[in-house]
Structures
1.
Amino acid sequence: MHFAMPPRKTSHPPPYAARNQSSLPIPPALKNLFRGGKLRTLALGILGFLTLVWLLRGSGGRDTGVNIPQIPIGSGPPVVIVTTLDPKADATWAGKIKKNREDYAKKHGYLTFFPPNDQYPIGSSPKTWSKVPAVRHAMTLYPGSTFFWYLDSAALIMNPSIDLQSHILKASRLEEIMITNEPVVPPDSVIKTFGNLKGDRIDFVVTQDKEGLVPTSMIIRNGEWAKYFLDAWFDPIYRSYNFQKAESHALEHIVQWHGTMLAKLALVPQNLLNSYATGPANPKFGKYKEGDLVANFPSCARDKADCANEHQAFFDILERKDE
Amino acid sequence: MSRSPSPRPGGWSSPGLNTPYDSGGRSSPFANGSSNNVTWASAQARSANVKGYTAFTPRNQGFFGKHFRRLSTSLPFSYGDKEKLGRGRGYQGNSRIMQMLNRIGWNLWRLRKPLGTILAILLVYILFYVTPLHRMYRRSSWFGGGSKFVVILAANQGGGVMEWKGPREWAIERDSVKNKKKYTQKWGYDLEIVDMSTKKRYAHEWRESWEKVDTIRNAMRKYPRAEWFWWLDTNTFIMEPTYSLQNHIFKQLKDITYRDINVYNPLNISHPLTDEYLDPETRSPIGDGKVDSINMIVPQDCGGFNLGSFLVRRSVWTDRLFDIWWDPVGYEQKHMEWEHKEQDALEYMYKNQPWIRPHVAFIHQRKINAFPPGACGEKGNDPHIHYHENERDFLVNMAGCEWGRDCWGEMYKYRQLSNRLNRNPWEKVKDWISDSVKARRDAKKKKEEEQKKTN
């Protein structure tokens, strides 16, 4: 096809188009730099590399430190049950207590640890202090486990079918059951448990009876916080202070005075972890009922000869269940 | 160059006639031989004088006029090509200086590119240090990293309700603050000056000057991006402001600190812990041995820990330490015994709470906390403790100078010494001249006195 005349040029010239259509806006001066020969690109490449090295210089050079075996928390059995036993106590009773824990642990894949209560450097302080280094000791022995449940020798596990994790320790469950804004020392302590704590940030689960916090049944999560908490609690300054109730008053003290401890504490209803068969139970939900996880006899712990007798009826119930 | 339009009373010279070297100049339009006539040119020149500028420039007058062409051909501002230069060279200069200048000029022109680059670099370098640019560079977290450090300076220690400060105390404080301000500004750190006067801060107790902890915590809140906090007492003086914390301490942290207290153990703390119930890291003499796990750096003097100058890092561990440091039960039982308050409490905790040990590193005292003579020994010759001028120690802490020593005197002495040690070369030359003059004068005086005596 042809025309006699070439087509007229349009009288509306297109606006100047951008020279480069690349998405990266490189200034022309820089582009000229790149346009040179091979040597120039090489030099630029080296310069760029050196800049990169210089920028990353700080992050390089890992030091390995000393060789301490690192076992990640969570790689072992989830829960370790710790009970300190008096080596002078009646052997058959001690055996029964051990069996009580071992049966429960076997059922859920947990571990048990029964250190004698005189093997730790407590000095002249009451023997009940031994629970603190005992938990630390268990953490040393089973560094892969996540939770350490200290259960006093005066307490019995009455409902072995309850799994500790779904019963208490799961983050969502913990958030559900923890008691917030509750005076740490009953009736009217100024310091109250924190609200809006996240379940997975809780490192310490404990209960409260009528008189205050009771460390006879408590769960501590393994980790750096646990070391801090246990070591601070075990400080000789508290052991020598003659707190009326030894370590439980020391616990109440440190928890009330130190925010980094209270922020990790979850107070749960007493019957979930530490129901009292005898003694000053929490008036709301402290008394032992059929089906509770634990039955505790705090009074027998003080004059230990009685424990075997008081436990007898409950051992019978457990045996009947097994059959 | 001001040129008189009429250089001689005799009138105008003819440039074309008396300048044999002017080869290429245009012929003068007003070259007339007669000297006394008022010519058109001289009239114009005079009127130009009235106007303030000359309408034309008589060429080739005097030295510059005569040589300008040849100079200019060899100078960079002439766009002369090589041919012209060749011609310029062909002439035999009438002086050797000219030849030399010529050669220098030519060489400069030939080397204009590298020289220009060097000059540009020099200019950039000077501009970098003259403007606040270098401070921004040192402060930025990408390059210098200065914003990661905060210096906390305790001011007004023991002041407030307990005692009034005299002019000397004010002078000490002013010097100390000025010293740290200069230092932090130089390296792009933050400086937090805190008032440590004794106050009744808590309604239920008298917590005498245990505020170190609260103060550092406040600073941590105030500078949320900073990582390391350096606590300094009032009676300290940074002797070497040219040392940055990064170069002096943190780049070689592993080499200049020791985790195992047995290296220097004035308190005889048994270390490492051996209790079986503790985990291997806590029982290890040096924690996990990694630099990353150091959260606190403390110097030790002859009597144990010294918190006159120490460093803490923002970390969860530090939060816990600061939380447990002050405890009412400890305070109640020990506050009479713990004369040095936080310092004693920290020593106590280090001994009795195993979780602390793996994260504390000790630093050789003279690195951040050298003592003057009088503290820890009268002579001041302990190589681990006392300040050494020749080794240019970083900081002097006039610890305990308020107990029977002269704080102001010491502060003054060390300030002068620091200034003298850090003179720039020009100041050194000046001082050398004045010193030698003084020495000569003194010698003279002595001689005269001796003569007088002999007479």
2.
Amino acid sequence: MLTDRFSALRAGGRRALVCYATAGHPDPVRSIALWQGLEEAGADVLEVGVPFSDPMADGPVIQASSQAALAHGVTLDGALALVARARLGIPVVLFSYLNPLLAAGPDVLRRAADAGVHGVLVTDLPVGSDPEREAWLGDGPLAFVRLVAPTTPQERMAEIARHGRGFVYLISRLGVTGVSAQLPSDLPDTIARLRAVCALPICVGFGVSRPEQARAIGAHADGVVVGSAIVRAADASVDEAVSLARALRAGLDGADA
Amino acid sequence: MGDAEMVTQDGMDGRFGAFGGRYVPETLVPALDELERALEAALADPAFDAELSSMLTHYVGRPSALCDAPRFSAHVGAPVWLKREDLNHTGAHKINNALAQALLALRMGKRRIIAETGAGQHGVATATVCARLGLECVVYMGEEDMRRQRLNVYRMRLMGATVVPVTAGTRTLKDATTEAIRDWVTTCPTSHYIIGSVVGPAPYPRMVREFQAIIGREARTQMLERAGRLPRAVVACVGGGSNAMGIFHAFRNDAQVELVGVEAAGHGLDSGAHSASLLRGTPGVLHGSLSYLLQDASGQVHPAHSISAGLDYPGVGPEHAYLKDAGRATYVAVTDAEALEGFALLGRLEGIIPALETAHAVAWIAAQRGRWAADEPVLLCVSGRGDKDVAQVSEPGAGSA
């Protein structure tokens, strides 16, 4: 389903809007309303964050959302139940740290697929770090999406691209998740370096919060991922987060000339 | 122990049996590759060894003494020997590793140093070597630990380090480590992260062990000279486990030497408030490596508890996990209350006030009367001195902390 979505976008000359939301944030009921609203606003892919107690790759906004979700008792099982209830028409990618996946047991990928999840992305399992567990994720029913960082040498980019499924998630800048005033000036070069060795669609995330940033990235990449900005807006209200997604969609579509 | 087993145990592939590994965000992979190359080059370079050795001798004060303990020995019923890491500059074993990693950072051209600290001993050691080498130093410390260890915070700032309070989660070592990793993900091209224990992603557990192994190398030679034989048992406290790995490593192939790691049982092993990752944890991934971990059924990390800030950590070094499963080391635990008794006991009997961390190992040995024959020496790693803990212990109600 991920692949189909990106093929359709490519055929239409459009860029993907990938929206991140932490499962169970601001609370379980509004979580579902938020996801449905994001789909309606034009999100092409929903990344569902699995709450974790020690999110070392996340900045303050997503940390706080993770804590709020845990306070509501939402863990990986809860996240899957919410996905099943939301009945979304767009592909869903789980965004998790490795430990909750390991704790959930080997059949968790099948259970996730049954709940309506299409892909999985693991923050702390880089390519080559653990062949056995990477094979578990890669050979299962979900598309195993891999990450590339601005520090990744091009040779390694090629290796990551070979192992990836669905799309490649390019981290735009050093650091943890969170909004940035400015995108790194060398981002187009980084995208080009990756593009040269990668046949998969490239989606760029970390630091993206505004429509004009989405538009700028859309000129080079196949899609943008917006996380902290949506989570922050959802702290205020679901409507605010949905409005932001709509504005990002418009910004991104402005790039599709 | 056969050669094959030694290779597995050595962690050259980043693994200790099933444990260890490199579970980090992609951004850090190139930094860890660079660190690994720099480490191999340094370990093979006589100039690095000469510089490190010279500073360990003249700045740190090595070799640290091996001290007999006649009155404590009489109490235990076996001769106890104390490896005095508390006599190092800054008062703990931590400086062995901090100094070596700071020299490595210089070789990599990285002049900004990040560290996490629990009790403050690693933070102080890192701030110290950074002052000596002219490096910028940023130390992350949980707010709760800053309260427990005010003096160490003052020491670090006095030496020019920036101490950043961490207010997330339990506001202790776990969260300080998470925050230090976040800094490093942001600054890795120009900063080196000096992890203070045998934890974290490869190559940290092996590297920190290598830099702490001097404890056991010295102690083994000193035991042969002073006691005329190897110890029957080597005992050390285990939080992350760096002083324990440091003293265990030289004895790993001496099958007759029992290796004992003492974890913090906090309010009791069945109280839910302890730091005994090896005794009560299950395998899981935290801070970049797979090891025993205090966690719930959904993989959320369970807050640790110990009266000792340095042991207050829900994970443990992956090599300890390996040694436990391989049966090569034995792990036991001591409560807060027992540790406080150990703290007082060594002071009263030997005139040595140990760190609260070390006091756990003291307390375990003190309770083993009859375990060893009168001619079976026991080697205790006095990982640090207790000056930092006196204020906390002297507070009313410290016994129930």
3.
Amino acid sequence: MRARAVALATLASVSIVGIGWQLGTQAIDASQNLTAATGGSAASTAATEAAAQAAATAKAAAESAAAAQTQADTANTAASAKVAADAAAAATAAADAASAANAAAVATASSPSGTFTGSVVQTQFGNMQVSVTIANGAITEVTPLQLTNRGGRSVAISNQAAPILRSEVLAAQSASVQNVSGATYTTDGYLRSLQSALDTAGF
Amino acid sequence: MRSDCERMPALTFATMGTMVSLRLGDAEHGATALTAAAQQVETVFRRWDEQFSLYREDSELSRVARGDIRLTAASESLRDCYALALDWRDRTQGVFTPHRGDGVIDLSGVVKALAIAEAGIALTDRGLRNWSINAGGDVLVCGDALGHDWVVAIVDPADRGESIASVPLRHPLRAVATSGSAERGQHIWTPRNFEPSPFRQVSVFAADIVTADVLATAIVAGGEAALGDLAERFPIDVLAVLRDGQLLATPGLRKPLSRTTTAIDRFSSASSSARADAPARPAACERRASR
């Protein structure tokens, strides 16, 4: 199962990187650099290296798409950094694949830490901006501050469902459960349902 | 242990072929007001059931299905409901459909959720701030449960006496609906390309119950492609059970060990654009939207 999770995570990363690469090449503003709120140049280096590695991955996986874009101008680098971050987020979300993701997307150089906010990138779908939290060189959180918008719909590239162990599912702090959600039970089925037990107990 | 005065007993009644469990907080409103509120909820469900249930021969929709009434001559509320369902068909690229295999209009994919939503609005309009409505496993909550989050357990499709997760229902994702591919074979009409769904069960958390219900159905019918597409386009969280028991979850349903983007974040940061994806009917509980 672990091997499968890692494989899926890698696949997700690669495909997201591929999509992001296309988006990145369409970024209009060439002056968008990932600006570090804290940590300065070390973090920028980390992001750039992550971008480079991600770009290499994308190239290998989608040669026809990526090979044409080997000249990494500034805009591409900035966009790819975001893509690398999102790829890392998606990969992290896969079961126990965090180390693989970090290896793929995080520079090994100087282990920077801090929260870094990317500048607003204009894409054909609208503006996009993310912040990335890095702890000891590992991306721990990616937050979209601004999402692209296409036809009134938000377009994000980081809400993909990934394999997850039962023990990893979000668990409520409170011990009390009031409701059960499942495929619809019949009136008769209710009597044998968990919901019936909860309702009788009055929680 | 909770003392008895802290308990919130469930009021249950049968409707639409299933059971509704209603919990009302706000004890300060008094027993009379809460009883009246519960009765109104029951009335709301009965009205939707009487108008739209195909297993009732006398329902308006049954008469439309038999050709006794032409669709153009049907009531405005029926046509509105049909239009809403068609709108969801478009938004899901046809994966969700209000038509049965034999062409009959079947609005059961939205009617229960619409009834839940309307009941929720009725409770909010009465000034009730803390309640939960569970209709056959589709849950909408408002506020909290005696100071705690409302918690919903997701049934294990392999053993319906067990749960696979207990998830807090918080603003803005305060609705959850679960669709299965096994229990009610006819509940989902469109297996695209007529292959069995890869999912045994799909739960969708959303800001409103209609979105949750429709998208849960659509993901079961549309498989992993629909899951990927809809999780991107709508501010939802999804917990899906594959046929072999493996779980798939969006980041928002992962323990906050390494919290990445959640649907809640996306909803908050893109609420203006996400509104466009909200259903035609307003979600209940909007007074709490600024919490």
4.
Amino acid sequence: MSTILRLIWFDLKQELNPPIWIVMEWVVFGIQLTVYGALISRLVTSMADYLQFYAVGFVIMMTFEIGSHTGRHFVEHAHEGRLPYLLSLPIPRWKLFLTVALQGGVELALMLTVPLSVTLSIIGNLTPISALSAVATLFWLGFGVSGLMLGLSFIAFRSADLYTAIVTALSTMIIRFSTVLYPMIFLPASYAGAAAFSPLTYGSDLVRFFLGFDPNMLVNPQIAIAVLTALAVSTLGLSAMLMQRIVEGVKSG
Amino acid sequence: MHPIETEKLTKLYGKTKALRELDFTLDEGEIMVLLGPNGSGKTTLLLILSTVLKPTSGKASVMGFDVVNQSTKVRQVLGISFQDARGFWRHKPIEILQFHATICGVPRDKRETLIEEILKDLELWDARGKLFMHLSGGQAKRLEVAKILVQRPKLAIFDEPSSQVDLRGKRIIWDHIRKLREDGSTILVATNEVREAEYLADRITILDKGVKVACNTLQSLKDSIAGGDIVELEFEAKDSKDVAEALGNLEGTFRVTKEEENHLRAYVSMAEEWVPKMTNICYQKGVKVVSVRVTEPSLDDVFLHFTGRALGATAT
């Protein structure tokens, strides 16, 4: 365990020195919420307080974005020469994989601290259990997205362009065809059908369920838990297997 | 058990064959130099041995551990200094060495002293607090080598350890690699620099297009070139025709050419054995020899002899 922590800390302390990227995420959240969120919530009249709904949705989008960074970092490390070095260290491959996944989790936690706190304070009137359940859901979703992107990152070893194209297209579809920004009950049937395949639908609705939103406009929380668990376990398991069997450092010379 | 053993080791990158059924062994305590031009398969072999790449077919073992099935054990006994020192742009040299030493299990009580000593020896002490991205190419390369000197693994692998380093720095690195061997490590060095190979090698393996074309000590490789040694003879008398004929019939003579009236050039194998025989003939024929100059083939000549190409040419 100490090896894993050392590996995580070795990179993390650079992120924190100074924590520019983390603070930038907070600033982006603040601007998005106070400008776009505040204005759009005045336009949306069919919901009591759309700002609350939007704030949760934006946190979910941040979770997706940060989780997808994990896969991208992994590929960048390969091309920068860090991956061959890490692969040559006396560490079992599974520990290395766990390190990559956990590092993504820790970065997620750091970047979401302020946005999530602000969101929880906007919603207010929460119990510690509901807040903790929402946090746990975000982590579970983050792991699932990280696993998905790590799995896809192996494409990048063949073609970085193809990887970028796939991830961009996937991100666009997964976010737009989901309940991140609008509840399922407002979606036309064709959109709702597509949203049922987006993991963000289950992530965002489960977080909202724990934070006390009207359950009638959310997907069934038990189904959401099952889907997120299946996503995290299957994608992380698949990525771990790929790393064990396939991963190689990028050849040089 | 050899520290390194490969059997029919093959690596394909798509349709390109980087290694072709390579059989290769390394003896304990030796410094083996892999010599070959860019693209000859040196780096691929090193990356397979260090478990970074997987072979397409064939077998490879390090200290008895299979590189595919026992890869973690392999990594516990070896350390590799990569050709390109990259990857930790925002870290400082001292942090990189502390991290590497810790992960590789260098005892805590020796760690700091060893790191300081190596950083000072490799003239990196003043740069220990700079960010990696601000180091010069030579400094980054020395840091890459320093990782292995701090780690002191049983099997140390260096991929072009002194490329981008100035002449003084090269000598310091080479001396440290030799010292590492004296302290008990077995060493594998890949290079395309003749001087590096000559300075370090106990044995040299010549790789060309993924194939091992020769493996022996430097002297044996030179000696294996028929007519590779050149002996220039100058006589006191001008008429040396009889002597030229007699020398041409000597065992080990490849050919004899007359450069001037009293000047012969003989292309021979094993000049150290040929010269005493030549002296006897001259004595018998009453010819006085004014000067003898022996030129051995260079490692470049050795490479040219075995591959048909100059070392500087890129393998295609």
